[in-house]
Each structure stands twice: as structure tokens, then as C-alpha cells.
Design a protein that fits this description.
Helix content: 25-40%
Oligomer: single chain
Strand order of the largest sheet: 5-4-3-6-7-10-8-9
CATH topology: Rossmann fold
Shape: globular
């Protein structure tokens, strides 16, 4: 397959319909009561897990205000920058990538308003991997369930993690419970999300994600659930991975060559 006139070893792992869907909503990214309200609500729980996982992995004091200072952080599928900005405030040198030009425009404008220096690019993770760009931490949140080939996508993300670095992925489990809550309830009954946001057959089980990480040379992941508490209307990090879950996986300092 050709990309930009050159051979693309990774192929095209982007669903243009998904890109168009989010591009059409790009002006709503920072509306906390709009279509992306669930992402705003889940943000604190995701950030808590990321901060703890990164601090543990790199031996950083979690009480440090700028806990990510000195670390290069990549956000794959950054959308409007909802996680890039808090990562930058924690001191990370953040690069946010997304295939949607509209999303990058919104993210860049919002970061500028906040006085944050974030390197936003309208590109694919496969392009960064092909160029040999490396980061201390790569995060990919609620993206893998929107790509045609999750295994290839995980592999491309893993290639951007330096030896000794860390990769963090969050997604939705392919369970009947997830179908009931993430699609029937969230999209059709409560209307938290536009109908058609998710396709159940593209949800990724925890076992499938673990296998994909191990197959591309990452270590056994630590997993946790992102759990919604309806009575408190908030998300927390917990043990239930049946619906939303998040995983942290390290890349060994020295690659293990099989065979």
C-alpha cells in the first residue's frame, strides 16, 4: 500500500467513517455537557491510573506536582486534547496525534488558550513508528475499539515506546455487560453518546489486549477497571474490568529475540 508516495509497511488501519464521525463533532470536544461528556467524566479516573502507573514504573514520587517532568509522552488518537492537557500540566513533554485535521485544529487552539505547549500533529501512529520516533510513555485511550485491526494498531503504538518505557491503553471489553451498558444504555437509553459511536464486535477483550501486547514484545500488563458509580455520578479505578478497563504494559530494556 502506498502512503504519501512511499511504501507503507503498516498498511492502512484507519476507518474513514470513524474519522469522519469524530471530525463532525470536533467543535464539541470541550463542551462538558455535550456529546463528549462521558470522556470528561471518566478523565479523572484515567489520569489517576496513568499517574500512578507512570510514577511506579519510573520511580517518581506521586506527590510531586509535576510528576511527568522530563518524560516524553505520546497520546495516540488525542481527539480534542482532553488527556493531553492534564498530562502537560503534570510536566510531560506531550505530543498528541490524530488522523482528523479538525480535531487537531480544536486541540491546538484550546491548548494555546490555556498557555500549554503541546505538539499536535494530524498523523497516524504508524507514521511515527515508521519514522523511528520514540517516547517514554505512549497512551492510547478509547481508540483501539475504533480501528479495523487492533493487533496491528497495538504493535504500531508499541513501536513508539522506547526500551524501558511504558504503554497505557484503555478500551471497552467485549462482554454482554458492556453491550448492555456501553451501547444500549449509554447510546440508546441515556443518550450519553451519539447512536453508532461504538460497534460491539470491535470491542477488545482483556485477554485479546494482553495477547496483542505480549506478541509485540511488551510485558505482561497490569489491568484495572474504570467503573461508573451511578449514585455518585462519577468514575473510579476498580477491579471490575467487564466494561471499561485500562492497562499498563512496560517495554523491556532489552528486546527478547525468539527463535
Amino acid at each position: 500500500m502506498q502512503a504519501g508516495g512511499k511504501h507503507d509497511p503498516y498498511g492502512n488501519n484507519i476507518d474513514s467513517r470513524e474519522v469522519a464521525r469524530f471530525a463532525a463533532l470536533s467543535s464539541k470536544w470541550w463542551d462538558k455537557e455535550g456529546e463528549f461528556r462521558p470522556l470528561h467524566q471518566i478523565g479523572a479516573a484515567r489520569l489517576s491510573f496513568i499517574r500512578e502507573a507512570v510514577s511506579d514504573h519510573f520511580g517518581i514520587d506521586q506527590r510531586k506536582v509535576r510528576a511527568l517532568e522530563g518524560l516524553k509522552v505520546l497520546d495516540v488518537g488525542c481527539g480534542g486534547g482532553l488527556i493531553c492537557e492534564p498530562l502537560a500540566r503534570l510536566g510531560g513533554s506531550v505530543t498528541g496525534i490524530d488522523p482528523g485535521d479538525e480535531n487537531i485544529a480544536v486541540a491546538s487552539a484550546h491548548a494555546k488558550e490555556q498557555g500549554l505547549a503541546i505538539d499536535y500533529r494530524a498523523t497516524r501512529v504508524e507514521d511515527l513508528a515508521a519514522a523511528g520516533e520514540l517516547f517514554d510513555v505512549a497512551v492510547c485511550l478509547e481508540v483501539i475499539e475504533h480501528v479495523p485491526d487492533p493487533g496491528a494498531f497495538v504493535a504500531a503504538c508499541a513501536e513508539t515506546v522506547r526500551p524501558g518505557g511504558l504503554m497505557i491503553v484503555s478500551t471497552i471489553n467485549r462482554t454482554l455487560k458492556a453491550y448492555g451498558l456501553a451501547i444500549i444504555a449509554a447510546e440508546h437509553l441515556l443518550r450519553w453518546l451519539p447512536k453508532g459511536t461504538h460497534q460491539w464486535e470491535r470491542f477488545v477483550t482483556a485477554g485479546e489486549l494482553k495477547t496483542a501486547l505480549l506478541e509485540c514484545g511488551m510485558e505482561n500488563p497490569r489491568m484495572a477497571g474504570l467503573v461508573y458509580e451511578p449514585l455518585r455520578d462519577r468514575w473510579t479505578v476498580g477491579n471490575d474490568t467487564d466494561v471499561n478497563y485500562i492497562a499498563a504494559s512496560a517495554k523491556p530494556e532489552t528486546a527478547v529475540v525468539s527463535g
